[in-house]
């Protein structure tokens, strides 16, 4: 993402706005990747605690999506960019929405992991009880 | 009559026209997508293969409209440099047409299931009545959310988002029936899986209709109220 890092605008503040958005979208992407890996790991190993952790982290993804969208809208309103910068900001709003969708799917996988565990026969629950002590 | 007060107040007559034109195109796209759902479900329950093929073919029109509206919005943002409500309106249009495009894809999925179900005559299907009922609910959700968009108003919007819970309940109930029938007779399994994908698609259409409502709340209030539960949403919107 060379275009992001190159300080090519007359307004130094605009560069800072874009840089801040860049940092956040990288963070959001990393978080969503992690959510998906953890959800699949939870599902394949039947790890309910891990599944619950995925569910509890979904708020972080939602908060990042809101924060990035807000920064993009504010930047469009204040800086009135055109050409590449505008296309980039609009594209970022679409990308956050896709990432949020992927995170929601990871959450779905975590949900299913928990549901499947509840359907396990009783003797397996016994084992979980012992582990809990 | 549509209330134009939110759109037709600009000094530039052309800007008013551009926004009006975009609104009409979104509503046209919405109408097309509603028709797609209607026909896909009809094709499935009546076994009308020609209708199913038509739905699949028409998905291109939905995609073309999305790209056309998308390009127009970006162009207006660049040329008019709108702020406040106008900017939110244009950004929300970009999101709404994305939801509509997804709904169009889901209608296409249902049409494909109609073809699979018709080709596979083994086993039986009892869930058409429930499926039609659920389809009616999600169609009403989508219709009301498009109506809100047309009026540019979020009065009563929590009634629409609230229907999503009912859709989810009906979805869960149909899934339970399908699982029971799979266990009763394994010959049913292929059919039941096709039915499962169909009700899953309907449930997703309900979700996307809810997202449209969330986008409209942002457009009108300037506040991002996505990711809230129904009761949190009601607390924020109902005085």
Please describe what this structure looks like.
The complex is a heterodimer of chains A (133) and B (239). By secondary structure, chain A is an all-alpha fold. Chain A has a single domain (12-114), classed as Phosphate transport system protein phou homolog 2, domain 2 (Methane Monooxygenase Hydroxylase, Chain G, domain 1, Up-down Bundle), CATH 1.20.58. Chain A is 88% helix and 0% strand. Chain A contains 5 helices and no strands. In chain A, helix 2 (12-45) runs antiparallel to helix 3, helix 2 runs parallel beside helix 4 and helix 3 runs antiparallel to helix 4 (83-118). The radius of gyration of chain A is 20 Å and the shape is rod-shaped. Chain B has 239 residues and is mostly helical. Chain B has one domain: Methane Monooxygenase Hydroxylase, Chain G, domain 1 (Up-down Bundle). Chain B has 7 helices and no strands. Chain B has helices at 13-46, 49-80, 84-119, 128-151, 157-184, 189-221, 230-237. The two termini of chain B are 27 Å apart. In chain B, 40% of the residues are buried. The interface between A and B is medium-sized, with 18 and 15 residues.
Summarize the structure in short.
The complex is a heterodimer of chains A (133) and B (239). Chain A has 133 residues and is mainly α.
Q: What amount of the residues of chain A lies in strands?
A: under 5%
Number of helices of chain B: 7
Report helical residue fraction of chain B. over 70%
Strand content of chain B: under 5%
> Mind telling me the CATH superfamily name of chain B?
Phosphate transport system protein phou homolog 2, domain 2
Tally of separate helices of chain A? 5
Structural class of chain A: mainly alpha
**CATH level-3 fold name of chain A:** Methane Monooxygenase Hydroxylase, Chain G, domain 1
Shape of chain A: rod-shaped
Blueprint of the fold:
The complex is a heterodimer of chains A (133) and B (239).
Chain A: H1 2-5, H2 12-45, H3 48-79, H4 83-118, H5 122-132
Chain B: H1 13-46, H2 49-80, H3 84-119, H4 128-151, H5 157-184, H6 189-221, H7 230-237
Helix pairs in contact in B: 1-2, 1-3, 1-4, 2-3, 3-6, 4-5, 4-6, 5-6
């Amino acid at each position: 993402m060379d275009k992001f890092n190159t300080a090519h605008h007359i307004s130094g503040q605009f560069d800072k706005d874009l840089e801040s958005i860049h940092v956040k979208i990288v963070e959001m992407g990393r978080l969503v990747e992690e959510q998906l890996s953890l959800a699949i790991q939870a599902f394949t190993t039947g790890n309910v605690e891990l599944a619950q952790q995925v569910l509890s982290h979904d708020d972080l993804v939602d908060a990042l999506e809101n924060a990035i969208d807000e920064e993009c809208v504010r930047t469009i309103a204040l800086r009135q960019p055109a050409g590449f910068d505008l296309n980039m900001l609009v594209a970022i709003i679409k990308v956050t929405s896709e990432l949020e969708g992927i995170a929601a799917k990871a959450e779905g996988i975590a949900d299913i992991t928990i549901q499947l565990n509840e359907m396990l026969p009783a003797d397996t629950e016994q084992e979980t009880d012992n582990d809990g002590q | 009559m549509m209330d134009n007060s939110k759109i037709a107040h600009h000094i530039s007559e052309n800007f008013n026209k551009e926004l009006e034109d975009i609104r009409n195109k979104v509503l046209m796209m919405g109408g097309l997508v509603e028709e797609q759902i209607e026909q896909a479900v009809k094709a499935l329950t009546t076994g009308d293969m020609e209708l199913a093929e038509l739905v699949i073919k028409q998905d291109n029109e939905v995609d073309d409209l999305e790209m056309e509206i998308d390009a127009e919005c970006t162009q207006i943002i660049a040329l008019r440099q709108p702020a406040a409500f106008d900017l939110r309106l244009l950004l929300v249009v970009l999101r709404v047409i994305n939801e509509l495009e997804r709904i169009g894809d889901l209608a296409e999925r249902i049409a494909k299931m109609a073809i699979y179900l018709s080709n596979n005559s083994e086993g039986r299907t009892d869930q058409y009545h429930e499926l039609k009922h659920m389809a009616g609910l999600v169609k009403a959700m989508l219709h009301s959310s498009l109506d809100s968009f047309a009026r540019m108003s979020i009065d009563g919007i929590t009634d629409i988002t609230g229907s999503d819970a009912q859709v989810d309940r009906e979805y869960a109930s149909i899934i339970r029936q399908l699982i029971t029938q799979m266990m009763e007779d394994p010959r049913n399994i292929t059919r039941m899986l096709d039915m499962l994908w169909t009700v899953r698609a309907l449930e997703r259409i309900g979700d996307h209709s809810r997202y449209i409502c969330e986008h409209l709340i942002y457009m009108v209030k300037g506040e991002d109220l996505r990711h809230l539960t129904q009761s949190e949403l009601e607390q924020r919107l109902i005085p």
